[in-house]
Design brief:
Helix 4 packs across helix 5. With 271 residues, the chain is of the alpha/beta class. The radius of gyration is 19 Å and the shape is globular. A hairpin with a 2-residue loop joins strand 9 and strand 10. The chain has a six-stranded mixed sheet, sandwiched between helices. The chain has a four-stranded antiparallel sheet with strand order 2-1-4-5, with helices on one face.
Length: 271
């Protein structure tokens, strides 16, 4: 792949703006478009939520942004430059992502968390704070007081396997130690119960105050934390606005939120 000289370095890395410009994408051997003419803008340090039914195109947007696939047509721009023109190491400095299908690594707790930012591998307090923010502080106990150096998984004789919910909290701790300008969260609390999810999103609100965030979640109470919500249906954006604006419009977002609201007590999510 030939890269232009101007794209070796990302211009103004402390001021990150993202644009989807008329993006079309179809998965291999699929009949229908996964995304069909999608355009939107994400401002610097803006917190965006993407919501919609299963198969609406939310995760596809994230996969394209993470350069797992290329658009069939249209462009995705970061600071005005097509994301595929940036060198991989430069691009990934700005992006940290936690997918629903997160990875669990057969290594120590310290190493599992520090994968999100290897520069903090020996900074115990920062790693511990990330685990506490991810509601995973209990993982620091056990294995005869090894703390961060306890083995996870079954490769080591003294290793301990975690539940899916615990592994998900470790994955979230990786995002908390990252120095990326944008954190992308694709169903980051899918394995958590509503109470644990509420605590996690309260932490999100403070941690991501100084950087941008793109959140995908089926649980729409989390969308209330976003500056802007994009509602997708059939691979297209059909609504956008704040929670309050979308509730007033009486459209798909209003109907989906109303259907879920019985699961949440008023004020459960700290805004």
């Amino acid at each position: 792949e030939v890269l232009s000289e101007k794209a070796d370095k990302i211009p103004n890395p402390g001021m990150v703006e993202i644009d989807f410009d008329n993006v079309y994408f179809k998965y291999p051997n699929a009949e229908n478009w996964a995304l069909e003419g999608v355009s939107f803008h994400i401002s610097n340090r803006e917190h965006v939520a993407m919501v919609g039914r299963n198969g609406s195109g939310k995760t596809t947007c994230v996969r394209l942004l993470m350069r797992l696939y290329r658009p069939d047509s249209g462009r995705i721009l970061l600071n005005g430059v097509d994301i595929w023109q940036y060198r991989e190491e430069e691009y990934w400095k700005l992006m940290s992502v936690v997918f629903q299908d997160f990875q669990s690594y057969q290594m120590t707790l310290r190493e599992n968390v520090a994968i999100g930012n290897l520069g903090v591998l020996d900074r115990d307090e920062k790693l511990k704070e990330a685990l506490r923010l991810a509601d995973a502080g209990e993982l620091l106990s056990g294995q005869a007081g090894k703390g961060l150096d306890r083995s996870l998984g079954r490769l080591d004789e003294d290793g301990q396997e975690l539940s899916r919910g615990q592994w998900q909290r470790v994955a979230m701790a990786r995002a908390f130690v990252s120095d990326a300008e944008y954190v992308v969260l694709d169903e980051p609390t899918a394995s958590l119960d509503p109470v644990a999810e509420s605590r996690m999103y309260e932490n999100f609100a403070g941690i991501f105050k100084r950087r941008g965030a793109i959140m995908i979640s089926h649980r729409l109470a989390s969308a209330r934390l976003a500056d802007r919500i994009y509602v997708l249906d059939g691979g297209r954006i059909i609504q956008s606005g704040s929670h309050e604006e979308l509730m007033q419009k009486q459209g798909m977002y209003h109907d989906m939120y109303a259907a879920q609201s019985a699961w949440y007590q008023e004020g459960r999510i700290c805004l």
